[in-house]
Amino acid sequence: MTPPEAPRSDAGIMPLAVSSCAGGGLAVLRRRADFLAAARARRHGTGSMMVQGRDRRDGDATIRVGFTCSKKVGNAVTRNRAKRRLRAVAREVLPGLAQPGWDYVLIGRAGETAVQPYDALRRDLAQALGKLRGQG
């Protein structure tokens, strides 16, 4: 059995695979230096995640986001589940509440991120963004 193909456009061209966070003004952090810069900036912890944020001050209005879960979160299955949930919450919450031109890193918490109700994750991210915005 072969895997299904992506749908073709009217021109017969297959679309490129893109990150699930791409589009809508969101980009994904990929470089270690970007994660380290966010780690030195503002942070706010909630019950289900830690959120780090920094103003890039580069004139680009794109909101960039990164995701990470350490081995403390659990085995590979649990870490991947936690990151999938963080990506889903970020896609939903960041476009409306994040500040343009900022980098955000969402860090999963052991025993919490993978099992929290989805509404609690959404509420925690919205609260963390509000706190980061209010800090001087």
Descriptive account of the structure:
The structure is a single chain. This protein has helices spanning 32-39, 76-97, 118-134, and strands at 26-28, 42-45, 49-55, 63-68, 102-108. By secondary structure, the protein is α/β, with parallel strands linked by helices. Strands 1-4-5-3-2 form a five-stranded mixed beta sheet, sandwiched between helices. Strand 4 (63-68), helix 2 (76-97) and strand 5 (102-108) form a beta-alpha-beta unit.
Quick overview:
The chain has 136 residues and is an alpha/beta fold. The protein is 35% helix and 20% strand.
What are the secondary-structure elements, in order, as H or E? Answer: EHEEEHEH
Q: Point out poorly predicted stretches.
A: 14-23
Structural class comes to: alpha/beta
Strand content: 15-25%
Which descriptors apply to this entry?
alpha/beta, 35% helix, globular, 136 residues
Fold blueprint:
Elements lengths: L25 E3 L3 H8 L2 E4 L3 E7 L7 E6 L7 H22 L4 E7 L9 H17 L2
Parallel strand pairs: 1-4, 4-5
Antiparallel strand pairs: 2-3, 3-5
